[in-house]
Design goal:
The radius of gyration is 19 Å and the shape is elongated. The protein is built from two helices and eleven strands. The chain folds into two domains: 79 residues, Ribosomal protein L6 (Outer Surface Protein A, domain 3); 47 residues, no CATH class. Helices cover 20% and strands 40% of the residues. By secondary structure, the chain is of the alpha+beta class. The strands form four sheets. It has a three-stranded antiparallel β-sheet.
């Protein structure tokens, strides 16, 4: 069995997951709603606050889709609870970056035009985080 596919998917109390016929998953949470078509050969079983991914048999195609289906559903749950985060690390002599008024200011050539939904957070002089 797939090691990733075997892992249970924890569902927080603030998230509602519905799986319809044909493996159409809808995940609703504090940051919005996501809808995704999951692989049809994988079945999902709800057990309280945990979801398990099961495959129908051990064929090569089913084994390859087992971890994918579980990861897609888990990523949807993470997306509606904590959102997308990108961690940047600045290394090297002469490279500097700082967060000023929610904008990423740096000493090297990068386009930093962002929408207002994305904010920059600084945890140290070398670690910067972009949060959506």
């Amino acid at each position: 069995m797939s090691r990733i596919g075997k892992k249970p998917i924890p569902v927080p109390a603030s998230v509602e997951v519905s799986l319809t016929e044909g493996n159409l998953a809808t995940v609703k949470g504090p940051k919005g709603t996501l809808v995704q078509q999951l692989p049809p050969m994988i079945t999902f079983e709800k057990d309280g606050a945990v979801i398990h991914a099961k495959r129908q048999n051990d064929s090569k195609e089913h084994r390859s889709q087992h971890g994918l289906g579980r990861t897609l559903l888990d990523n949807m749950i993470v997306g509606v609870t904590s959102g997308f985060t990108k961690q940047l690390e600045v290394n090297g002599v002469g490279y500097r970056a700082a967060v000023q008024n929610g904008q990423l200011v740096h000493s090297f050539c990068l386009d930093t035009k962002r929408t207002k939904k994305i904010k920059a957070v600084s945890s140290s002089t070398t670690h910067k985080q972009l949060v959506r």
